[in-house]
Amino acid sequence: MNGTVTSISGATVCVDLADLKIGDRVFVGTSRLTGEVVRLDDKIATVQVFEENRGLGIGEPVTTAGEPLTVALGPGLLGGIFDGLQRPLPLLLESSGDFISSGQNPFPLDRKKTWEVTTHSKPGDSLHSGEAFAKVREGHIEHLLLMPQDGTLQQLEEGKLTLENPFATLADKQPLYGWHSWPVRKARPYQSKLPPTKPLVTGQRCLDFLFPLLKGGVAMVPGGFGTGKTVLEQTIAKFADVDVVVYVGCGERGNEMAGLLDEFGELEDPRTKRPLKERTIIVANTSNMPVAARESSIFTAVTMAEYYRDMGLDVLFLADSLSRWAEALREISSALEEMPGEDGYPTYLGSRLSGFIERAGVVKTLSGGQGSLSMILAVSPPGADFAEPVTQACLRVSGALYMLDTQLAHRRHFPAINWTQSFSLYSDTAMAHFVEEHGEWAKLQARCRDILQREEALREVAEVVGMEGLQDGDRLLMRTAEKIRLDFLCQNSFTEDAFAAPRSTIESITTLVAEHDQLSAALDDGALLDDLLKEAANAPR
Ligand SMILES: Nc1ncnc2c1ncn2[C@@H]1O[C@H](COP(=O)(O)OP(=O)(O)OP(=O)(O)O)[C@@H](O)[C@H]1O
Ligand SMILES: [Mg+2]
Prior knowledge:
By secondary structure, the chain is α+β, with helices and mostly antiparallel strands. Helix content is 34%, strand content 24%. It contains 14 helices and 28 strands. The strands form six sheets. Strands 8, 18, 21, 22, 23, 24, 25, 26, 27 and 28 form a ten-stranded mixed beta sheet that branches. Strands 1-2-5-4-3-6 form a six-stranded antiparallel barrel. A four-stranded antiparallel beta sheet has the order 12-11-9-14, with no helix packed on it. α5 (291-309) packs across α6 and α12 (472-489) packs antiparallel against α13. The site of magnesium ion has 4 residues, from α3.
């Protein structure tokens, strides 16, 4: 069915097209710009156009895709770089150069690539939606091909196939391909949600030791300008012990994304020894790309993340930053003249955000396996004001908070995680796991926190009386706390130290605390701190 453009106001366009539903994808104008129906009146539909629409005129044709905004799910997503509408950026670059021309919709997956398909079921099997009917090897993972709907298999193909060939035929003669599409705003189904239990090792000592995250958990990383959100997210993307990483650059600088892409092409995954790129999907909607597609980018990305979770894999979703996403939402909402809520954000900001964050978790998949989707979400509150609506809305649904501190960043203490204000609700569960594996973890964590807290109090005293005025025991404590801060909590992402395995993390902190206890015992026996430190400095290493 065809309609026409009746009015245009920025990226918001009214069209006279009947039989539309909210959320339907439409193609606007002669250059077929992608848009989404956001409001329906009697005969007029309001469409949010996701692409640059300069040059669009009244009376240009509009057609509907007859379905909501979807993503294509199938082998070949890993290593992919997409925009917020899942258009493959390398292909767009080839066809239209550095600045994407509007109206291009190349298929996101490589249709010509051959895959070695092995069957996972047999003719006559009746499978439910989400159950696997075949599998292919995609890099380091076994990619399960999942049924897009319920059906009985009549025939299954094996061997070398491309995405253009049917992989199977259903009893009603319908062909089943190696890919299917899924609406981005609809969470993929699962059998049941399970509580997260396994730790997600980030390789960051401060996080793994003090504020551990679990697979299936959600952490938020609020931080002011230049506090290290991007570096932290990208470092975790490199080293986290998960099968698949989905990284969304949402409204951030284009050159940072370009740097990430170059680096991922060269680095290898320390666990599988294969290029890091092979386990990563990047969704880039940088600050120089249209704002409206930014709103859809996190949904596009999370749907791809869920797809890999449904194969029984551990997936990590990283977004940088949700504040830029919320700003896009605000811009769209104000163009629609909706009633503004706090700080001008739409009143549904909280529910939209929690609906998205709820898609994280550990699940029993429809094919009977267990998969997890964890999230680490950066938030950049203006003026580092953590009371603002986006930070608060995220906080309500996050299980861990990694608060980045402007003062620590100024002192070049990176990652600038404030150890008094950050928290992890997963700590006890993670600890139970770590204690089994690494013995003293819980005791050490309590000691470390205690030393850092006592240092805070002592620092105030030292400011008044000077370090010389402190007793030897207090000076020792300040020395140990400093060592914990500088040698343990600080971790430079641009050196070999960027990743710390749990075993080395526990060894480092054990050594620091043991040295403190040894010196403390010597002080109790009447020794003087300066003599002990001189002795320690001269001792052979
Ligand atoms: N872990 C780290 N190790 C070493 N240097 C770091 C680390 N984290 C941050 N930095 C330094 O801080 C700078 C700013 O970091 P980053 O770009 O990640 O901040 P940001 O919070 O993303 O900033 P913005 O708010 O502008 O997006 C980096 O260029 C780097 O020099
Ligand atoms: Mg940044």
